[in-house]
Amino acid sequence: MKTDNSCFESVEEFKYLVTISTNQNYIQEEIKSRLKSGNACYHLVQNLLSSSVLSKNLKINLYRTIILRVVLYGFETWTLTLREECRLRVFESKVLRGIFGCKRDKVRREWRKLHNEELHDLYSSPNSLRVIKLRRMRWVGHVVRVGEKEGVYWNTLPK
């Protein structure tokens, strides 16, 4: 593609501001990359999240302000499939298990991992998928309100 005196090469994918874009709009690689970054971030603060010194509320705030923001960067443009939704749920459950720890089973008198329902009962904030859907709707509403008067136009891509 040429414009003025510049020539641009056509590429299969490129990275812009830590977001990977492909010519086929495959978001799976971007989500994998986000989850990989989230895992790295989780492992950096894992000692804090499993500490008995910090309160559960502080640990949840660490998760929401550090780890979740790394994972959900640029999510407004994601088109999630059931597979990606499952990956996000698994990641969130892993982090929440690290925060809330194990539970002592009264009948068996053994320690066990918390079930997903128990985790989400303890975690009072909306889960990451709910956050994605709510913020995506807010973003669409913003774009619609801005409309053409501010220079935002809806472009349709050729098929």
Task: Please explain how this structure is put together.
- With 159 residues, this protein is mainly alpha-helical.
- The chain has a domain at 25-128.
- It is built from five helices and six strands, in the order ββββαααββαα.
- It has helices at 28-49, 56-71, 82-100, 116-122, 128-146, and strands spanning 2-3, 6-7, 13-16, 19-22, 103-105, 110-112.
- The chain has a two-stranded antiparallel sheet. A two-stranded antiparallel sheet has the order 3-4.
- A hairpin with a 4-residue loop joins β5 and β6 (110-112).
- The longest helix is centred in the N-terminal third of the chain and has 22 residues, at 28-49.
- The radius of gyration is 20 Å and the shape is elongated.
